[in-house]
Amino acid sequence: VKRDLATLVGREHDVLVIGGGIHGAFSAWDAAQRGLKTALVEAEDFGAGTSWNSLKTIHGGLRYLQTADLARMRESIRERRTLLRIAPALVRPLPFLVPTYGHGMKGREALAVALLVNDLVSADRNRGLPRERRIPAGRRLDRDELRALVPGIPAEGLTGGGLWVDAQVESSERLLIGVLHAAASEGAVLANHVRVVGIDVAAGRVGVVRVEDTRARAGFEVRARVVLNAAGPAMDEVLALAGATRAPVPLLRAVNLVLRRPVVTQCAVGALSAGRYLFLVPWAGRSMAGTHYVAPDAMPLAEQALGFLAELARAYPWAGLGPEDVSLVHSGRVPGRDSRHLTTRHRLIDHRREGLDGLVSVQGVKYTTARAVAEEAVDHLTLRLGRNCRGRTATTRLTRAVPLEGDLASRTRTAVHEEMALSLADAMLRRLDLGTAGPPAATDVDEVARVLSEELAWSPARVLAEREALAAVFAGAAL
Ligand SMILES: Cc1cc2nc3c(=O)[nH]c(=O)nc-3n(C[C@H](O)[C@H](O)[C@H](O)COP(=O)(O)OP(=O)(O)OC[C@H]3O[C@@H](n4cnc5c(N)ncnc54)[C@H](O)[C@@H]3O)c2cc1C
């Protein structure tokens, strides 16, 4: 993954992808693999947007049973299986359990039926998977089994519970970088810290896309036959650059809390709160709790995070959660159906009818299904380009979707020379997995900063600025 701005501006691409989150990354890989001349520009760093905040659950879509949305459920099951197959070093099965209190529609019998239907709908969930990546059938737990798995859980009215297996991506950042390696190996031209600042439209067609290298503060023009807007929550801001006047998609602010302690260890544990399930998820020797949603202007982030912590403390009284447990607050904007409810459907919009021929937007709703959504988007682009080529990302192993190896100095050099880390935060947070669970050890920061300053010839003033920028990330994500 090399930053090649000369090729970015020097050729006409078939496809220019705007946004290097998980949807943009999968789109660039898919397009390049189909033989399209592909470029991707990312305003900040790859995966620094919404994709950085995920709870890391690769959902099989059990929740879609509530609305009998079997199509969504099938898509999630297929994509869970795909990720287990193409990124086996990072994606693993993870058991989930929910306790039941009482009987009937909200009790253990209803859950047992849901698990049974889940197994039937996902009968092919393990097709082609190696034994250690297979998802076993769900099962009912009796009261004692449940109490053994979740010591301290309130016993009054407890009738048992249900256990099913989903999956978890250990490092969503490394998975995304693995996708970019695959894209680059197929010839995609990728650049981080390059922001789209203007989209010129002439005679109803999108022409030149104006970009800025935000580190060098230099402007360029990029040409492409079609432009895919994969800017996530910034979709409408990018559309505005092209003069689009459509009504904006409502956004919600989603929050997770990363906890210092392994509050749960063997399984993720669900709890009903205000009519919806919260989950405590074991991850990287710690736990994460998610997810809480409000309209972004409803309250400040700190107030939302504290409110969510109070809700968690009520829902998991046995966990004894307090502010001292929180090492990091994840927050990202996700598309809503309206200003209160999440949408479960991705959007793929061809803006031709709005007088913006050559511009297509894709807005996904789950990390889990990003590959499939990208494939659908690229299917559409190939049609628009008059090309007939099918996607193969579902069956291509992501060989570089693995943790980096070697001592910290050599991993840092790999991050710089093979993975386009341009800042201390790029390297620490999204290449080396140091700081994804909270502020990293000072010795690690020192070592990574030392290697980066050597490799990138940073001045002492630059090193200081990079350290301050990294510290600011954690200051903004503290409780
Ligand atoms: C708290 C939280 C928890 C979640 N948990 C889960 C989970 O457990 N499982 C799951 O499947 N999903 C989960 N999700 C959803 C998932 O994270 C998102 O659906 C996914 O990451 C969105 O990816 P994206 O590529 O569409 O957007 P983003 O990751 O936001 O990427 C868009 C990119 O576009 C770039 N961009 C914006 N404007 C420009 C411009 N002008 N020029 C160039 N680039 C630009 C941005 O910098 C950004 O990097 C969660 C989301 C949140 C917020």
Can you describe what's shown?
- This protein has 479 residues and is an alpha/beta fold.
- It is 33% helix and 26% strand.
- The chain is built from 13 helices and 17 strands.
- Strands 3, 4, 5, 6, 11, 12, 13, 14 and 15 form a 9-stranded mixed β-sheet that branches. Strands 1, 2, 7, 8, 9, 10, 16 and 17 form an 8-stranded mixed β-sheet that branches.
- α10 packs across α12.
- The longest helix has 17 residues.
- It is globular and about 70 Å long.
- The structure holds flavin-adenine dinucleotide.
- Flavin-adenine dinucleotide binds next to α2, β8, β11, β14 and β15.
Q: Summarize this, please?
A:
The protein is α/β, with parallel strands linked by helices. It has helices at residues 5-10, 22-33, 70-86, 108-121, 143-149, 172-185, 235-241, 301-315, 370-385, 408-419, 424-430, 442-455, 460-475; strands at 12-18, 38-41, 57-58, 91-101, 139-141, 158-169, 189-191, 194-202, 205-213, 218-229, 251-259, 268-273, 276-283, 286-294, 326-335, 347-350, 359-363. Helix content is 33%, strand content 26%.
